[in-house]
UniProtKB/TrEMBL annotation:
Signal peptide: none annotated. Binds 1 zinc ion. Residues 49-139 form the ATP-cone domain. It comes from Candidatus Roizmanbacteria bacterium GW2011_GWA2_33_33. The lineage of its organism: Bacteria, Candidatus Roizmaniibacteriota. This is Transcriptional repressor NrdR. One of its GO terms (molecular function) is ATP binding. HAMAP family: NrdR. Keywords: ATP-binding, DNA-binding, Metal-binding, Nucleotide-binding, Repressor, Transcription, Transcription regulation, Zinc, Zinc-finger. A zinc finger (unnamed) spans 3-34.
């Protein structure tokens, strides 16, 4: 690794730390020529997750888009921001474990909804009504019957 200050080609690693989630390595480096220190980060280069939308268009998976939808669904509920972030992390991890790099948007919605259902039923219904495009009251009633199948 070259020095970012003097461009010397031989720097020394002073300290190495792995991030909590294990996806990044932080290295403190020192240049023997100019004695300055700097930090580098190593991350695994991953293939992007491509989302296939309902209309057939494709776009990169966007954590912020999923977060926004979950936050809207969870307004005025007991679901915390930490729980929402945990859902997003679990969904993204599951997507990366799949063999395919192109995933239908409904699959992502189902993964998030499944986790949300365990936390808060109202937030689950709100989220499901948007991503499944409930059209009328019958759609809501069908989904509610899944909670109490009498």
């Amino acid at each position: 690794m070259f020095c970012i200050f003097c461009q010397h080609h031989d720097t020394e690693v002073i300290e190495t730390r792995v991030s909590e989630d294990g996806t990044t390595i932080r290295r403190r480096r020192s240049c023997p020529k100019c004695d300055k220190r700097f930090t580098t980060y190593e991350r695994l280069e991953e293939l992007p997750i491509i989302v296939i939308k309902r209309d057939g268009t494709r776009e990169r998976f966007d954590r912020e888009k999923l977060r926004s939808g979950l936050f809207k669904s969870c307004e005025k509920t007991i679901v915390t921001a930490e729980k929402i972030d945990k859902i997003i992390n679990e969904v993204e991890r599951e997507l990366k474990e799949k063999d395919a790099t192109e995933i239908e948007s409904k699959t992502i919605g189902n993964l998030a909804a499944k986790r949300l259902k365990k936390i808060d039923k109202v937030a689950y219904i709100r989220f499901s009504s948007v991503f499944r495009r409930f059209v009328d009251l019958d759609d809501f009633e069908e989904e509610l019957k899944k909670f109490n199948p009498d």
